[in-house]
Amino acid sequence: MQVGERRVAYRRTAPPRAEELLAALQGDPELRARLAALLEFPPGLAQALDRLTAELREQRLATERGFEATRAEMSARFEELRADMNARFEAVDRRFEELRADVNARFEAVDRRFEELRADANARFEATDKRLGELLRQLVHQGRRIEVAFKRIDAMGTRWGLRSEEAFREGLGDVLGERFGVTAERWVHEDREGVVFGHAARVELDVVVRDGETVLVEIKSHVGRADVAEFRRTADLYDKLHGTRSKRLLISPSVGGRAVELAAKLGIEISTALEE
Q1: What is the domain count for the chain?
Q2: How does pLDDT run across 176-206, given as a tens digit for each residue?
Q3: pLDDT tens sequence across 75-119
């Protein structure tokens, strides 16, 4: 088999696999010889390849050396950067610790100050409570004394009022007799049916009669609304028992405002001085 025919056979068929080619070379010495002849280098090619290989090796070594130098430089820079970052972080940590210690110290000082203020406030409140308690006891004591004094004043006023009313009534009788020729009679009645007070009681009025006109008079040291209502019921009882239509007059140096209003509605005249 010639080489040309072998090539044609290879062109017509699929490319041989590596195992098939290796088997063919091992079984065909001629094929091996021809392949060896084809692979022989031309003169000078080997030296050129050696130089190229040496240059490539040198370039690879130079590249490796450059890479190593770059890697060393980058490592050194990275170490410097890491050291600088560590130093910065350590400085930040120290500053943070200083700030935390300062903040803790400030809060502790504030806590101590607050405790001092609270203790002082508690002491002041306790002192104030004691003073208020003492003042309250004094007020209670003074209140009791004032209450006793008012009771005494009321008793004195009542006695004085009764006496002044009696004295004024006696004076009124003298004035009426001297200036008007009439007398004031004291009407006293036992109200057993309780018309005036709602229960059996003695009721009294001063009665003045002049020219056939009956005037019922009540003299009091002070007139309040209840006094006006009481006087009206007593006067109504008098008119009912005597068949009269009397005029009504309240005489007092002290009259309450509501008493004046009620007297006006009931047709009762109120006077603080004796008029002609």
Answers
A1: 2
A2: 555 455 667 889 999 999 999 999 999 998 8
A3: 888 888 888 888 888 888 888 888 888 888 888 888 888 888 888
pTM of this prediction? 0.40
For residue 150, is it within any domain?
A: yes
Q: Is the dihedral of CA 103, 105, 106, 110 positive or negative?
A: positive
Q: Strands of 247-251's sheet, edge to edge?
A: 184-191, 201-210, 213-219, 247-251, 269-271
Q: Which domain holds residue 253?
A: 182-271
| CATH number for 214 | 3.40.1350.10
Residues in the chain: 276
C-alpha–C-alpha distance, residues 9 and 26, integer Å:
19
Sign of torsion over alpha carbons 196, 197, 199, 205: negative
Both tokens of residue 233? 């019921």
Instruction: Give the model confidence (pLDDT) of 228-241 as tens digits.
Output: 999 999 999 999 99
Q: What radius of gyration, in Å, describes the C-alpha atoms of the chain?
A: 69
- The DSSP code sequence of 200-267 is -EEEEEEEEEETTEEEEEEE-SSB-HHHHHHHHHHHHHHHHHHT---EEEEE-S-B-HHHHHHHHHHT
